[in-house]
Amino acid sequence: MSALISPPAPGGPVGRLLRSRLAAALTTPHGVDRYLERFNPMWAAHEVRARVVSVHRETTGDAATGSAPVATLTLQPTSTWRGHRAGQHVLVGVELPGSAKRHTRAFSISSAASAPGEQFTLTIRAHDEGQVSSYLVREAQPGTILHLSQAQGEFTLVESPATPTISRLLFITGGSGITPAMSMVRTLLRDGYDGHAGRRVTFLHFARSPEDQIFADELARIAAADNGVEVHLRYGDQLFSEFELRRLVPDYKETDTWLCGPPGLVELVTAAYDGSSRLRMEFFKPAVARAAVSTGSTTERSAVEGEVSFTRSGTTTAATGASLLEQAEELGLKPEFGCRMGICFSCTRTKTAGTVRNVLTGEESSLPDEEIRICVTAAAGDCHIDL
Ligand SMILES: Cc1cc2nc3c(=O)[nH]c(=O)nc-3n(C[C@H](O)[C@H](O)[C@H](O)COP(=O)(O)OP(=O)(O)OC[C@H]3O[C@@H](n4cnc5c(N)ncnc54)[C@H](O)[C@@H]3O)c2cc1C
Ligand code: FES
Hints:
Blueprint: H1 2-5, H2 13-18, H3 21-26, H4 32-39, E1 48-59, E2 70-77, E3 89-95, E4 102-108, E5 120-125, H5 131-138, E6 145-148, E7 168-174, H6 178-190, E8 200-207, H7 216-224, E9 229-235, H8 242-248, E10 256-260, H9 263-273, E11 279-282, H10 287-295, E12 307-310, E13 315-318, H11 324-330, E14 348-358, E15 364-365, E16 370-373, E17 377-385
Parallel strand pairs: 7-8, 7-10, 8-9, 10-11, 12-17
Antiparallel strand pairs: 1-2, 1-6, 2-5, 3-4, 3-6, 12-13, 14-15, 14-16, 14-17
Helix pairs in contact: 9-10
FE2/S2 (inorganic) cluster binds at residues 337-340, 342-347, 373, 375.
């Protein structure tokens, strides 16, 4: 009986059978996971899903100051989850009440590195008009089922904490950008990182106010312990300054640094590092903001000449250099999107003619009938998009 109730282990005979060509052929066209899901949402042969185990309120938010509530969701993934490295993110698919579509967004994993099938946490800020973040923070409850990707991303620790060459680490974060850094610090401490032999972690975090501080109690405990981790919390108008960074970490440009936060913070820190390869960044914001920060300019937007035609809806507009997703939204169209960062492929459309530019790499392409991600693509002249 327990074999019927427990999810099939991926490496076991039932798991292998469910992932076989025979199972795929027998369950065409829906696939084996559609049938398993009906039986039990926590059974899967290929896909990854997760059940919300608990919801912990980190901050309540304050409408008067415009701060938004934050919650940490603990998730039990299906046995198909391969685990994650500290700093990685996951794509979360949610079927919102009253919507037939699945909405996908990226969230960094806030708990320490996980092994296959192990529980992990997401810590989410509910954006005012944010569909998915508001649903997850305000309405998700134990038992809610979420669709997941495997963990992805390279914003991770470069080496194992056991490696003696890791001696100095620096995390600079702002707002909910603390989540991947928290996963890394939790992993380091769990795996025995300490302050011996000159090892030191400096964690510099910026929040709106003490009331908005995520993980406040845990950060206070980490700061008080003898573990080689220094925590510096800055609030409100205590903005980032190169002068202060130099005081905290004099050789910061030669120190492995992980940066994640709002565009303003990213811009200031990037300028202070002046091209140093020791600085790694993760972005939560849409791609165009990211491109503007990395190129240090938004002037390209106005330099484009040409017309964008969204052929299926019969609308045309002047190319502005904004992403095609933004241009479509400005016209009142509602194309599907997920991460708005070029990582989830939800916004893929066909460009039937014309020249476009990848806003992250600057690369241009004029190939006909090309699949493009409209969130990271802008017109570079006249172009036709099947939308
Ligand atoms: C790699 C990665 C990791 C991320 N990790 C986290 C995380 O750990 N915790 C977390 O809370 N969020 C994280 N995010 C942001 C998250 O993916 C969503 O963008 C955010 O939750 C808003 O989604 P939404 O559906 O609620 O808003 P939408 O319905 O998509 O947008 C509604 C409104 O909010 C604005 N908006 C959308 N995204 C943002 C944003 N990121 N910041 C400010 N305004 C926005 C839009 O412009 C729009 O006006 C991450 C994003 C990426 C790309
Ligand atoms: S919305 Fe995710 S790739 Fe475009």
